[in-house]
Structure formats: C-alpha cells, structure tokens
Amino acid sequence: ATARAGSEIAFRWSQWLPSHRGPMTTYMAPYEGDLSEVNVNKLQFFKIHEGGLYPDQQFGKMDTVPWSVKPNLATDKMIWDNGVWNATIPWDNKPGNYIVRHELVALHFATTNSNYRNYGFVAPQFYPSCYHVKVTGNGTAVPVGVTFPGAYKPTDPGLVFGLYVNKTSYPFPGPPVY
C-alpha cells in the first residue's frame, strides 16, 4: 500500500475473543532494496502507536465475558469498534519503504493471577502482523528503533501484567512511542 506521512492507517481484525484482553501497539521499520531479500530480524522498528488501559471509558456491554471486569483495554475498544484499530504514520517520516508491525498482546495467561492458571503455563500471547507500506511526503526523520526478536524481555512489567489484579495503569513493553 502507499500512504502519505501523517495519514491514518486502519487494521481490521477478524472476530476477537473478549477473553484475550490486552494492549495493542504499532511499529514501523524502514528498509531498502527488494523486500524478498530483507532480513526482518535486523530491521530497526520504532513505535508509532500504543493503546493499553482506558480506565475512564467503557466500550459497550460485553456479556460474553464470563467474569466481572470493566471493559477498558485496547482489545475491548477494538472489539467495540467492529474489529478496527487505527494508527497514524508520523508526519515527519522520511519517504520510502517500510514494514509496519501491528500487534496485540493477550494477557489472559500473563501471571499466576490469571483465570487460566490451571492450564499449567503462564505467559502472554503475541499476535503480530506485518505489512509493506510505501510512505510518501517530505519528511526527513528516521527514528531509532529496536529489533524483533529482542525488543521485549520476558520479565518486562507489561508482559507479566496482572490483568485481573492491577487495573490502574499499564506499563508498555518496548520503547516509547516516537
């Protein structure tokens, strides 16, 4: 796809399980040359958007959730918005080819406080998807990035987040938003 720097891009998710709750983030990484020859594990991804907790908002009534929680996470917002999540390409991005990495991190297994702890494992679940986007515009910025794998550590507070215990703020893993 081609998109101008500063424009909004929309990601459409298929029907999502309300039990798989968590944050959503979007990254971009510039690359040169033929995409089929790019080693994506060496690309420098910078974060352009993150959505976590929305403590003062409720996104509809989620009768399908079997436990009592206030729907206030990025996934709840995405479900409420008919499976769509939006992010904006930074207005000052240098024109060129980019890989856009959009991901959802489901936290229902993230800690021993999980409603699912009886299954014998504790870890977040990652749902990344990547897209090629040609960015146009007049920007000159090439933000510093991180690599995947390597951007997160298993002990990052956002990856061992007590979804059913601590619901006042969310500590995002990875770098800050550019």
Helix and strand layout, with pairings?
Elements: E1 2-4, E2 8-12, E3 24-31, E4 46-51, H1 74-80, E5 84-88, E6 96-106, E7 125-136
Family: Belongs to the polysaccharide monooxygenase AA9 family.
InterPro entries: AA9, AA9_LPMO
Keywords: Carbohydrate metabolism, Cellulose degradation, Copper, Disulfide bond, Hydrolase, Metal-binding, Monooxygenase, Oxidoreductase, Polysaccharide degradation, Secreted, Signal
Task: Explain the overall architecture.
- With 178 residues, the protein is mainly β.
- The protein is 4% helix and 28% strand.
- The protein has one helix and seven strands; from the N terminus they run E-E-E-E-H-E-E-E.
- The protein has one helix at residues 74-80, and strands at 2-4, 8-12, 24-31, 46-51, 84-88, 96-106, 125-136.
- The strands form two sheets. It has a five-stranded mixed beta sheet with strand order 1-7-6-3-4, with no helix packed on it. A two-stranded antiparallel ribbon has the order 2-5.
- It is globular, with a radius of gyration of 17 Å.
- The two termini are 22 Å apart.
- The mean pLDDT is 87.
- Its main location: secreted.
- InterPro entries: AA9, AA9_LPMO.
- This is lytic cellulose monooxygenase (C4-dehydrogenating).
- One of its GO terms (biological process) is cellulose catabolic process.
- Pfam families: AA9 (PF03443).
